[in-house]
Amino acid sequence: MSAFEFSKDKLPKQLIINNEYVDSKNSKKLTVYNPADGSLVADDVPLAGEADVDAAVEAAEKAFPAWKKTLPSKRRDMLNKLADLIDQNAKAIGELTRITLGAPWGSFGLFEVSLCAETLRYNAGWTDKFGGESYPQEDGFMKIVRNEPLGVTAGIIPWNGPVGSIGLKAGPALATGNCFILKPSEKTPFAALALLPLIKEAGFPPGVFQVLSGDGSTGALLASHMRVRKVSFTGSIPTGKKIQEMAAKSNLKRVTLELGGKSPAVVFDDCNLENAVNWTVNAITGHSGQVCFAASRVYVQEGIYDKFIEKYKTMVAERSKLMGDPEAESTVLGPLVDKAQFERVTGFIQRGKEQNQGTLLTGGARLGDKGYFVEPTVFTDVKEDSEIHRDEIFGPVSVVRTFKTEEEVMKMSNDTEYGLMAGVFTQDINKAMRIASEFDSGMVGINCISLMMTQAPFGGSKQSGVGREAGINALRAFTEPKTIMVNMTY
Ligand code: NAD
C-alpha cells in the first residue's frame, strides 16, 4: 500500500512541480464548495500563475531528453504501477473528487477511477508496440517513418470526469515519451493534486508528470505558452475555440479538442422497447446528465411512441427517488456540480416552461432546499427551433419528439452543429447500419448509446471536437511522424 495521505479532512493544497509539492507563487486562490449542501470546502486552493506555469514548463523541458529515451518497457512499468496505485487508493481518490463534484461512489466514482487506471494500462501496453512505418526501397531510397514525441504537452480537463480524464490524457502522452502537465478544473482540483505520492512511487522522474491547479487563466497560460507543444483539451465549445486561437497565435502547438454534444437517440417502431428505454433513460440520468455524450434528444417513431413515452416517463420519474446525499451508499444520482451549473440548468427548464418550448412531461423542479439537486426532467413535443431542443444543457434534461420516416429523423438528427454521439434502436440490422453511416457524428451506438471504450477512438465531428482520444488515435495525437530517407545507392 502506498503512502497516500489525503482525505476530505486533509486536502492537498500545493502544486506538483518537478516531483515536489510547492506553494504557488501566485497570491490568488481558488474557492470550492460542496454541491450537496453549498458549504465551503476550501478557499485556499492554489491558482497557478505565470511563474508557476513557467517553472513547470522548465522542469518538463529539462526532463524531456532523458524521458523520451527511456526504455519503453520502463515507461510501461511506470504506467502500470501508477494504475495499480490508483486502484489501491480508489476510495480515497473518489472521496477527494466527490467532495466538490457530488457524484456518488457506486454509480460514478468507482467507474471513473477505474477508467483512469484502465486507460493508463491500455496505454502502457502500447509503449513497445506503437511502431512506425517503412516503404519499398526499389527506387533507391528506404523510407522510415518514426513516431516521435512532441516534448512538453498539457492536458486541460473539465470537472465532470476529473479522474477519468487524467488517464485519457496522461496515458497516451506519457506512453509515447512526452512530458505532461495536467490542469484540472477549478471546480474539482483535489484528486489531481493528490497524485504526487503515487507519481513518485510509480517511478516517474521529476518534471515528467506535473499538476497545476488553476482556473481558465492558468489554462490560457498553457495554451499560449511558446514552449508547450501540445494541448489536449476537454471542455466546452467556447473555451475550445479560444484554445485553438491561442495555440495558433502562439507557437502553432498541436491541439486536440473534446467538446460538447446534444446527442440524438433514434428509436424505431421495430426496436426492443425495454432495451431502448433502459439505455435512453440511463443516458440522460447517469451522473445527473452532466455527461458530454448524454442522449439529450430522443426521437421516437409514431407507432411505438405511446408505449415508449409511458415507460420512459415512469423510469425517469423513479430516478428522482435515487437522488440525494452523495455520501449515502444507496444514492445513485447526486447534485449538479455547483451553483452556476444549477442556475444554468434550472434556467433552461424555467424558460422551456415559460416560453412553451415544449410540454413538461416529468420533473422540472429542485429537490430539497439545500445543495444543487434538480429532478430528472423530460419535455415532449418540443419546438424544433427551441433552445431546449438545440442547446447543450449539461444536466438531467431530455427532449422528446416523434417522427414518421427515416428521412425525416435523419434530417432532424443532423440539423445541429454538434456531432459527438448518436444512437439508433431497431432490430433491423440493415436499417441500423444505414442510419449509422448517415449520422454526422463521431460515435454511433446501435441498440445502445452514451458509452465509450478505451480501445476505440472517442470524439466528435463538427463543433463537438477536433481529433480523437482513446485507442491508437490518442497516441497519434501525442506524436509527430518523422520521415527518414536513406539513400541506398550511396
Ligand atoms: P470549460 O470549457 O468551462 O472548462 C474546461 C477546462 O478549461 C477547465 O479546466 C477550465 O479551467 C479551462 N478553461 C476555461 N477557460 C479557459 C481558457 N480561456 N483557456 C484555457 N483553459 C480554460 O468546461 P466545463 O464547464 O469544465 O465542462 C463542461 C463542458 O465540457 C461541456 O460542454 C461538456 O460537453 C464538455 N465535455 C466534453 C467531453 C468530451 O470528451 N467531448 C467530456 C467531458 C465534458
Provide structural commentary.
This protein is α/β, with parallel strands linked by helices and 490 residues long. It contains 16 helices and 20 strands. The longest helix has 20 residues. It is globular, with a radius of gyration of 23 Å. The termini are far apart. Bound molecules: nicotinamide-adenine-dinucleotide (NAD). Nicotinamide-adenine-dinucleotide binds next to helix 8 and helix 9.
Largest sheet: 7 strands, mixed
Number of strands: 20
Ligand inventory reads: nicotinamide-adenine-dinucleotide
User: In angstroms, what separates the terminal alpha carbons?
Assistant: 58 Å
Relevant CATH superfamily of the largest domain? Aldehyde Dehydrogenase, Chain A, domain 1
**Helicity range of the residues?**
25-40%
Reading off the top of the CATH hierarchy, the class of the largest domain is best stated as Alpha Beta
Stretches where pLDDT is under 50 for at least 5 consecutive residues are: none
- Content of β-strand: 15-25%
- The CATH architecture category of the largest domain equals 3-Layer(aba) Sandwich
- The quaternary structure here is single chain
